[in-house]
Amino acid sequence: MTRFFSRTRRAWAQAAFAGALSLAFTAPAWSQAGTVRLVVGYAAGGPVDAAARQFAPALAKELGRTVIVENRAGVAGALGAESVARAPADGATLYFAASPTLTISPHVLKSMPIDPVKDLTPISPVSTYANALVVNKDLPIHALAELIAYAKANPGKLSYGSAGMGASNHLSGELFAKQIGATLTHVPYKGNAPAMTDVIGGQLSMMFDIVSTARNYISSGRVRAIAVTSRERNASLPEVPTMREAGLPGYEVIGWYGVYGPAAMPAALVTQVNAAVNRALADDELKKQWVAQGYDLWPGTPAVLAAQQRKDFEMWRGVTGGIRFE
């Protein structure tokens, strides 16, 4: 893995150089294909798929082409990434990436089918999201300070669920445990929904869950929200403090979605698709849907997306500590 990280650091520099060099040449015209495949690395019905399907109509309008969401689930989203990496770099195949695939999976998978830097071209950031830390409603815990005190006084007694080993909410719990200096018991599930079911039922003490799904359980009183993991409060949960506000100033975790293309995608085409994505993010209906679900729209440049990917890649490397999962 040391060689992998060394190659990855070289790849950041090589990718930046290649992008600058390609600007000096005239790029091929946009693909003549009438349909654009927007690949999602997760199964239909989950939060990534739902976000992609809400985004696709706005993107189609701005591209002037039909956009079809295609699910290629497996290997923590990496099979979808691989299918895009192997596609022609003509703009007809794009990847709707969820950040864990590109920033966590390289550290925890025993076999990563692609290099997340060399094999994909960053095109545009799309949105960011936070996790909400929730606890079983019958626990006598109403604030982060109480949770931390309980965890320290009862090593291993607090259990938390996740969508699986190496998932972002698993590592959010690992980061939390490291920062407070306490032992928590992690219980992996095959998805967020069954883990949340067991938090509600009392089989688990707590979990970190994406705001877009957790907010429904919070608003109905089935779980109690303790904090959100973003730097600022979330618009759909304005009464819930951030981890920083609640007493853990060094804790901040966000996830994000971004659009990528295959490697060596011509710079002029990247610019064209980036502009379409940013116009799509100004769509009133999309903004209304996503803000209500807890997403923050995140327009920007390819460089902004690449920088966030690099930052999170390094952060999660420190959290994983060299452990590996299938």
UniProtKB/TrEMBL annotation:
<dbReference type="InterPro" id="IPR005064">
    <property type="entry name" value="BUG"/>
</dbReference>
<comment type="similarity">
    <text>Belongs to the UPF0065 (bug) family.</text>
</comment>
<protein>
    <submittedName>
        <fullName>Tripartite tricarboxylate transporter substrate binding protein</fullName>
    </submittedName>
</protein>
<dbReference type="Pfam" id="PF03401">
    <property type="entry name" value="TctC"/>
</dbReference>
<keyword id="KW-0732">Signal</keyword>
<feature type="signal peptide">
    <location>
        <begin position="1"/>
        <end position="29"/>
    </location>
</feature>
<dbReference type="InterPro" id="IPR042100">
    <property type="entry name" value="Bug_dom1"/>
</dbReference>
